[in-house]
Design a protein that fits this description.
Length: about 450
């Protein structure tokens, strides 16, 4: 008995599910038919004089043109064979006319143009200047770096600069070294000089020259040698001075340490000029060349503009950012730019000849094609394939496809291009049918 009740319950559930699905399919079919026929909520205007068009193929008495079909401009893919109200938007359907043999053209009445917000501009000939900006960071000019080394073995007795990044000026003392090797060379030179002064022998003069050469080999420069010769006194200490102004980038000397000849003690980075390494997008690399003038600005110094030129384009692309590095050299007389600062670089545009240009918003990019909708006489519009060039400051260069003086659509062109494409497709396929109303479908035996 229990099994019988269970079987009966299952059968009842199955029947209810089948009935619900049937009702769902019926409602879905009715909704699709209402949207396709365009009669859901639509009313067909009643002709006042018997001359108003009521179906596709009639002539419009206001324009004298034959109506192909009606459509909703906001959903141009759906066609209707009768006028009425759009099932998609709260607006009346718009007629589409036949315009000769050019199936790519469409005609839009001035009223509909105003409703769609169509706006046209004239194709002009002029200069299109490309403006390119990039960000960069300040770095030391590596061509303005000097190393201060020990020219002889000795000891560091005094340090006048004790920390890295300390600023220094040209000629400033850096350290004082005691050089024992200089004492013997100077004593030998002074002895040879006294002997050569008392005698005119050629051999003694050669001894004087040899002693002078040994002082040079010990690391003394000509200024130090002349000082010893002028005073006749032995100098065992030397003071290292900064050859240029800047900052101490590296300091390896400490008081009391012994140094060997050739040991680097100081690295001085000049700040008279600095480099800015700007990241230029790979796609815009063709606009930047060595010698291109630039203007640099930094948030740390508002209102100050630094001018310079591109010195080099480094032959390497960053695989992560897809950018090239442009090296820019800037004058820095007041040492206001320091390494690590962020800057904004504005590259000057290269001189270009006059070209045709249109607003960038007028161009429809489809991936493989660039299309512009051209406004013709009597409210006609046609899409035209064009070849575009550079895009800068809201203007796009047109290399081919247009001529100066033509008017192009800059607002609402997507609807016009969509309609023109649908008409061209219909013409190529030979499909002259549009969506029929319920009366024609019933006459042909079609199901609602």
């Amino acid at each position: 008995m229990k099994h019988s009740y269970a079987s009966a319950g299952i059968i009842v559930c199955a029947l209810l599910a089948s009935a619900g699905y049937g009702i769902y399919r019926l409602g879905l079919s009715h909704g699709v038919h209402a949207a396709a026929s365009g009669v859901s909520g639509a009313t067909t205007p009643v002709p006042s004089d018997g001359q108003e068009p009521t179906k596709a193929g009639d002539l419009d008495p206001s324009t004298g043109k034959r109506i192909l079909y009606w459509h909703d401009p906001m959903a141009p893919g759906q066609k209707f064979d009768r006028p009425g109200k759009s099932p998609f938007m709260d607006m009346a359907l718009v007629p589409v006319y036949a315009d000769g043999d050019d199936a790519a053209q469409v005609t839009i009445s001035p009223r509909v143009q105003q409703n769609l917000g169509l706006r046209t501009v004239e194709v002009k000939q002029g200069l299109v200047t490309s403006s390119l900006q990039a960000v960069g960071s300040v770095a030391y000019n590596e061509r303005d770096i000097v190393m201060v080394q020990a020219r002889s073995n000795g000891f560091v007795e005094k340090l006048f600069v004790r920390a890295a990044l300390d600023p220094v000026h040209k000629g400033q003392p850096l350290a004082e070294l005691y050089v024992p090797d200089w004492v013997a060379a100077q004593e030998e030179f002074l002895t040879a000089k006294r002997l050569s002064a008392k005698s005119t022998a050629t051999s003694l003069q050669a001894l004087d020259d040899g002693a002078r050469q040994r002082m040079r080999l010990a690391g003394m420069n000509d200024t130090q040698i002349h000082a010893v010769e002028a005073t006749g006194e032995v100098v065992a200490r030397t003071t290292l001075v900064a050859p240029i102004g800047g900052v101490v980038g590296e300091l390896t000397a400490r008081e009391g340490m012994s140094v060997l000849a050739g040991a680097p003690l100081f690295r001085i980075n000049g700040l008279g000029t600095v480099w800015v390494n700007a990241e230029v997008p790979e796609a815009a690399a063709a606009q930047v060349r060595p010698g291109t003038p630039v203007e640099a600005r930094t948030p740390a110094l508002p209102g100050i503009v630094f001018r310079g030129k591109v010195s080099a384009i480094l032959p390497e692309v960053n695989p992560a950012t897809r950018t090239l590095k442009a090296r820019i050299e800037l004058a820095n007389p007041k040492a206001q730019l320091v390494p690590g600062m962020f800057t904004t670089i504005a590259f000057a545009s290269a001189a270009r000849k006059e070209v045709l240009s249109v607003p960038s918003e007028a161009v429809i990019h489809t991936g493989k094609r660039s299309v512009i909708v051209v406004a013709q006489d009597d409210g006609r519009f046609a899409p035209v394939d064009v070849e575009v060039g550079i895009d800068a400051d809201g203007q796009t260069e047109i290399r081919s496809g247009l001529r100066a003086g033509q008017r192009v659509v800059v607002s609402g062109q997507f609807l016009v291009d969509s309609e023109a494409s649908l008409r061209a497709w219909t013409s190529r396929m030979g499909d002259k049918d549009v969506i029929a109303g319920p009366e024609e479908k019933e006459a042909k035996g079609s199901k609602p």
